[in-house]
């Protein structure tokens, strides 16, 4: 619901939407970038649950934001900004 509100505001309440892509190549790219990662993600989660169990998979999934930032900062030299730290805290905070 929040995404819809942000999308509506960013597109001047749906008046500034881009036209639908024409041709098969843009649609193939859209399908490839949306469907294939989803399938791969679901398959790897299912395999992970079979290999290590549901509790460790849930814990690793909850800590994914932390892991991603640690790897980015330590291995790829990314800068850890205040904005990223605020995001990590907001995601990690119990609801």
What would the keywords be for this entry?
transmembrane helix; transmembrane; plasmid
Largest sheet at a glance?
Answer: none
Estimated share of beta-strand residues: under 5%
* Computed structural class: mainly alpha
Low-pLDDT stretches: none
What count of structural domains? Answer: 2
| Total helical segments | 5
The N- and C-terminal alpha carbons lie at a distance of 18 Å
Helix content: over 70%
The value of Rg in angstroms is: 18 Å
Mean pLDDT figure = 83
Descriptive report:
The chain crosses the membrane at residues 12-33, 39-61, 73-93. Keywords: Membrane, Plasmid, Transmembrane, Transmembrane helix. With 95 residues, this protein is mostly helical. The chain has 2 domains: 22-61; 63-95, no CATH class. It contains 5 helices and no strands. The two termini are 18 Å apart. The relative contact order is 0.05. The mean pLDDT is 83.
Topology summary:
Layout: H1 2-10, H2 24-52, H3 54-62, H4 64-76, H5 82-92
Helix pairs in contact: 2-3
Transmembrane segments: 12-33, 39-61, 73-93
Keywords: Membrane, Plasmid, Transmembrane, Transmembrane helix
InterPro entries: EmrE-like
């Amino acid at each position: 619901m929040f995404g819809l509100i942000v999308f509506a505001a960013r597109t001047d309440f749906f008046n500034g939407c881009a036209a639908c892509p024409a041709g098969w190549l843009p649609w193939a790219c859209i399908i490839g970038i949306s469907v294939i990662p989803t399938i791969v993600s679901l398959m790897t989660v299912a395999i992970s649950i079979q290999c290590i169990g549901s509790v460790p998979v849930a814990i690793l999934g909850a800590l994914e934001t932390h892991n991603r930032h640690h790897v980015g900062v330590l291995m790829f030299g990314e800068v850890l900004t205040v904005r990223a730290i605020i995001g990590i805290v907001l995601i990690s905070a119990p609801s």
